[in-house]
Each structure stands twice: as C-alpha cells, then as structure tokens.
Amino acid sequence: MDTFDLIVIGGGPAGYLGAERAGHAGLKTLVIEKREFGGVCLNEGCVPSKTFLNSAKVADYCNHAASYGVKNDAKATVDQKFVVERKNGVVKMLVSGVKAGLKKNKVTMKNAEAYIEGKTDGGFIVKAGEEKFLAKRLLIATGSSAVVPPIPGLKENLEKGVVLTNREVLDLTEIPKDFVVIGGGVIGLEMASYFSSVGSKVTVVEMLDKIAGPTEKEISTILQKRLEKKGVTFNLGCKVTGIEEDGVIFERNGKSEKVKADKILLSIGRRAVTQGIGLENIGVNLERGAIVSDDKMMTNVANVYCAGDVNGKVMLAHTAYREAEVAVNNMLGKRDRMRYNVIPSVIYTNPEVASVGETEESAKAKGLKVKTVSIPLTYSGRYIAENTELDGICKIVVNESTNTLIGAHIIGTYAGEFIVAVSAMIDLEVDIENIKKLVFPHPTVCEIVREAVWQI
Ligand code: NAI
Fold it and tell me: Is pLDDT at 73 greater than 90 in this prediction?
C-alpha cells in the first residue's frame, strides 16, 4: 500500500489548493477527485458562469452602444452554442492549469471515488477505485451539491432535463423562451441576469420578501430594480409547491399561481457532501449534514482536517482556498486560523454587487454602535464617464468605538475587483483617519471608498 503524509479527498478549490500548498511544503501528498479536477468552481460554477456573464455584458454594451456615441443599428444577438463552446475552452485551460500546478508541486493525482475505510496505527486507509492508500493525515474537501427538495414533480422534471441545476444550465446550447428561476440567491440572480440579457423572458420565484439573501437591503433593492428594467419578473414571498413540464406552480398569499417555463433553474442553496465517503468509519462529527471544524480547520478527529463547502460555513471558493491554507499550515505546526469576518462576496450580475463585513443590520444585531454612510457612485468621475445608468451606491459601516471600518457594500462597475482593498482595511483595523490619508488612483471607481470615509 502506497503511503502518504497527506491524502486530500476532493479536487476542487479547497482540495487542489490544499494539495498544492502541502506539496510545496514538502509533504508527500495524494489528491483524489472522482470527477474533474477544479471541482464545481472551475467546471460548473464560478468560472463558467463568468464566461456566460461576460458574453451577456458584451451584448448589453452592444445594445446600448448608441448611448456612448457608437453606431450599431443591428440588435446584438447571442450565439448560445458558441458561448458554451467558449466556456468549455476556458474551463479546459484552467483545469489544465490546476493539474500543472499540482504536478509542479509533486502532488500525486488520482481520478477515482475515494472512501475512508478506517484507521490503523500507520494512519488512515483510503480506498480509491481498486487501490488502497495509507496517510498520516486527511484533508476532507468534498464540497457541496445543489439542494433538491421534495417538491412534487421536481425529480421527474430534473430527469427529463426541464429542471436544471448549476451544472446543466451551463451546458444549455439554446436560449429558452421562458426561463424560470427558483430561488433569488446568488446563482439564481446571476443566471437571471444572463438569460434576460440574451433574450429569455425570465421569472424569479423567491420564498423571502427580498432577493440576494443577506445582501444589504438598499443594494438588493437597486439590483432588483435594474433586473426588472431588463425584463426580469420577481415573485417574492412565493413558495414553490409543484413543478410541471411546462411551468412552476407557487403559492402567493395562500393562493396558487402558475408561471410558464421551457426551462427551470433550481438554485435554492447547496448542501455539504458528507455521505458515502466513510466519515463514520473514523468518527468525524457532523452537524446538520456538514463537518464540524474549528478555526484551524481541524475536525474532532486528530489529523483529520476539512476545507471548503463541506463544513457548510461560507460556501465560497475563496473561503475554500484560505481554509485549505489554514489547514495545511496547522498540519505543519504553523500558527494560522480562519477569520470569517473579512471574506468578501461578489454577485456578478450586471451591475455587479460586492460586500464585505457587517451590514448596518448585522452590526446593530451584535450590539455594536455604528455610523453608516451611503453615497452614490456618481462621486466617481470614472463611474459617470463609463456608465449611463447611474444608480450605483457605496455604503460603509464604521464601528464608532474603534473608528474603524467594519463593512462595505457596493453596487456598480468594478465593485468585485476593488472590494479586497476594503477587506484589507477591515482586517488590519486601519483607523478611518489613516484611510483618509491613503492615495487612491484617479479617476477610478474605487475612489468611492475614500469619498465615503470623508463623509463620516
Ligand atoms: P443561495 O443560498 O444563495 O440562495 C437560495 C435562495 O433560494 C434563497 O434566497 C432562499 O430563500 C431561496 N429558496 C429556498 N427554498 C426556496 C423555495 N422552495 N422556493 C423559492 N425560493 C427558495 O443559494 P444558491 O443561489 O443556490 O447558491 C448556492 C451557493 O453557491 C451559495 O452558497 C453561494 O454563495 C454560492 N455561489 C456563489 C457565487 C458567487 O460568489 N458569485 C456564485 C454562485 C454560487
């Protein structure tokens, strides 16, 4: 039986980066992936959806070219088959990059389904296909899968291909006429934004009375208005009660309604993948189906770590990266821990949304004394120069007792690219007076952060 210092189960962002970092540090590492290396993020999530959304952005620009003085009399149309082929090319390139990174760091890769058989004095025994391996440590990074609730008609229509999850939707080569999205969260909104830009009639059915989950209300309201302007219909406070081949049935104020659909996207959240991998054979604790881990990414079992969606904490690829690094550092005896309060999140709709830290509501719920400022992005010259719809805003939340930033929420161009600057300010607890002294490039949209702190 081949022996390793570390076996990583799962080759998504947590798994491949963890394996790469461990290999780099000199640990003899094996990473086992049952599907494609790169996981959901690279193959059927973050990256492919961004190639889709970029095509939509180009189409949006073309169709509004006249507003920028560019003549374009024909209506731009999207060749969906081409979009999918381009997406496949992008994915292929990135997956080969992941494999190259693992190889460079001397990580052994195995394409098989892993199962933890148990523990002996020599370490953990992991079966992968027909082979068995032994390792001193494990990093569980099996990710998550789409939640499929017991809604009548859902299972049958998933099998028929009428209902799609994040996986199948990114392989649609035809633009549906009527596209219904169940769940107005991140996946639902990104896909609603895409399909409305490329010509579908899009309807979102969301259980809550607001879209975009925990996103600052002021921002989610602007996003909703913009998407409505693009033609998206939102049915909020509506619970889906049934799926038929030609539509979705939902309840509004106790009354049943039906919305017509050619294709239906199911995006009501994701659940950690913890079954069928033998966690019970070594006694790993689960809570609500996810692995319980501390801020060093340790589970209750010595030498068993986890990273990524499998712990159900913050299901984002960049959280997974950092968790994997924290896990590996702790394996190596280095002090490191996760700080979940400074993880930025981005919704890549057009316009895009970026947030980090506390919202006014969450800060107040924690009993913090806060000051907030909300200013329009029109304070930025570049924003006005490059946009015709000038509804973007930046809202910051400041802790009055420490005079430091604890949250920022932005809707508008480039927000996802510069939010990390705010994350750093929050993480490093930079005093507001020192932020005022920072020089931002001009003209940029990120100057909005400097403007906002001057309004405090
Ligand atoms: P989500 O948790 O973001 O949103 C699910 C929505 O579905 C919620 O608003 C919920 O109220 C609603 N819902 C639940 N049951 C429902 C029902 N029966 N009928 C109607 N609405 C219902 O989950 P989503 O969009 O599936 O995304 C999954 C994960 O993927 C998230 O953790 C997200 O963070 C991650 N993700 C992140 C992206 C990004 O960072 N840009 C992009 C895509 C996914």
Answer: no
Strands (E), 141-225: 144-146, 163-164, 178-182, 201-206
Q: Active-site residue 442, yes or no?
A: yes
Identify the CATH number of the domain defined by range 154-268: 3.50.50.60
**Which atom of ligand 1 approaches the CA of 151 most closely?**
18
Protein residues with CB under 6 Å of any ligand 1 atom: 46, 149, 182-188, 190, 205-208, 213, 239-240, 267-270, 315-316, 345-348
Residue nearest to atom 4 of ligand 1 (CA): 185
Percent of the chain clearing pLDDT 70 (strictly above): 100
Domain locations in the chain as residue ranges = 2-145+271-340, 154-268, 351-453
CATH of 2-145+271-340, one of 3.30.70.1050, 3.50.50.60, 1.10.940.10, 3.40.50.720: 3.50.50.60
72 within 8 A of 66, measured Cβ to Cβ: yes
Q: Where are the beta strands (DSSP E) in 255-313?
A: 255-260, 263-266, 270-272, 286-287, 290-291, 304-306
pTM as predicted: 0.96
The answer on pLDDT for 72 being more than 90 is: no
